[in-house]
């Protein structure tokens, strides 16, 4: 697949804070790439460097192999929401399309079609302040795609949306990728990321710690966990071989197992005095991989396995 965006060894510091260090990744035509990481990991700084809102201290950013990134080919939904409050919806959409040199007639047609799709038909002449927060967010999303960008950067597109609107956004984002748009999506909603994204790029303390195909990453980092329903002593469970940590909630215990555990032979070594009403073994979710990295700093183990 053709590379649309390439970020190569990007570094950026603010005074004495190294916000991004030596970060590289690419986004290809027709894929949804997730950019993930705990608060303060450096995601927005990376995105702002791509958008030219700030400049890298070191490293390079290129678009389809060119150093100069053509702004009209990029769509951007920033984390900070906000459109001119007292301007009419259609006027804003046409104004933003015009800024990107997009033909106005086509922009109007697209705006009407998208407003209909997002249940905002008839709101062309409403001003933004007359809309609810979610409705305003829909208009802002439309403004980021009105000019048919080749690269679309979405910073937390789902925050503040109700489940129906979330589904609308999900469907539209997928459709755009199917039509060939390269999409870089930042989100803290791991279930949505797991469901939608083809590849992911995870940052921690400004550095890249995981990078690869969603399926490969899950197979590689998703250790097994064993859930036991039954009253058991947490310390005893923590003392079992190959158990990294135990979470207990009333009579349910979740045992997070170390990497490379072979579940069948691990089960054979469980003590006979355990109380077991139910027992299941599953792989941890992307959500849990994220928590594991963000809280235990289990990074060295992850780092060796990053791949392009
Ligand atoms: N303009 C700035 N001046 C000084 N420090 C900054 C600035 N912008 C970001 N930082 C610092 O850089 C680090 C990375 O911030 P950034 O906003 O990129 O993180 P993030 O991953 O987007 O976080 P979040 O998920 O909370 O949005 C943080 O420690 C932050 O305090």
Automatic annotation (TrEMBL):
ABC transporter domain mapped to chain residues: 5-230
InterPro entries membership: AAA+_ATPase, ABC_transporter-like_ATP-bd, ABC_transporter_ATP-binding, DrrA1/2-like_C, P-loop_NTPase
UniProt entry tagged with the keyword Hydrolase: no
PROSITE patterns cross-referenced by the UniProt entry: ABC_TRANSPORTER_2
Coiled coil spans: none
This protein's UniProt keywords: ATP-binding, Nucleotide-binding, Transport
GO molecular function: ATP binding; ATP hydrolysis activity
PANTHER family, per database record: ABC TRANSPORTER ATP-BINDING PROTEIN, ABC TRANSPORTER ATP-BINDING PROTEIN NATA
Family in the record: Belongs to the ABC transporter superfamily.
Protein name: ABC transporter ATP-binding protein
């Amino acid at each position: 697949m053709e590379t649309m965006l390439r970020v190569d060894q990007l570094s950026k510091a603010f005074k004495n804070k190294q916000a991004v260090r030596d970060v590289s990744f690419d986004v290809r035509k027709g894929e949804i790439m997730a950019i993930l990481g705990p608060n303060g990991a450096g995601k927005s700084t990376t995105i702002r460097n791509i958008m030219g809102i700030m400049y890298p201290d070191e490293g390079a950013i290129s678009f389809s192999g060119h150093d100069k990134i053509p702004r009209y080919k990029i769509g951007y939904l920033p984390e900070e929401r906000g459109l001119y409050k007292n301007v009419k919806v259609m006027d804003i959409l046409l104004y933003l399309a015009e800024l990107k040199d997009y033909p106005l007639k086509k922009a109007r047609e697209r705006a009407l079609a998208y407003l209909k799709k997002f249940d905002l038909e008839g709101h062309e002449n409403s001003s933004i302040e007359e809309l609810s927060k979610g409705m305003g967010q829909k208009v802002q999303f439309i403004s980021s795609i009105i000019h048919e960008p080749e690269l679309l950067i979405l910073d937390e597109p789902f925050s503040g949306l109700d489940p129906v609107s979330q589904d609308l956004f999900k469907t539209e984002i997928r459709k755009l990728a199917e039509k060939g748009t390269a999409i870089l999506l930042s989100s803290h909603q791991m279930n949505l990321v797991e469901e939608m994204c083809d590849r992911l790029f995870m940052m921690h303390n400004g550095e890249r710690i995981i990078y690869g195909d969603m399926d490969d990453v899950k197979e590689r980092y998703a250790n097994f966990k064993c859930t036991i329903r039954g009253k058991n002593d947490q310390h005893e469970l923590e003392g079992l071989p190959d158990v990294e940590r135990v979470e207990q909630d009333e009579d349910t215990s979740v045992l997070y197992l170390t990497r490379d555990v072979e579940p069948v032979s691990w089960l054979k070594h469980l003590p006979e005095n355990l109380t077991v009403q139910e027992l299941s073994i599953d792989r941890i979710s992307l959500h849990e991989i994220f928590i594991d990295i963000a809280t235990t700093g289990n990074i060295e183990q992850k780092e060796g396995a990053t791949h392009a």
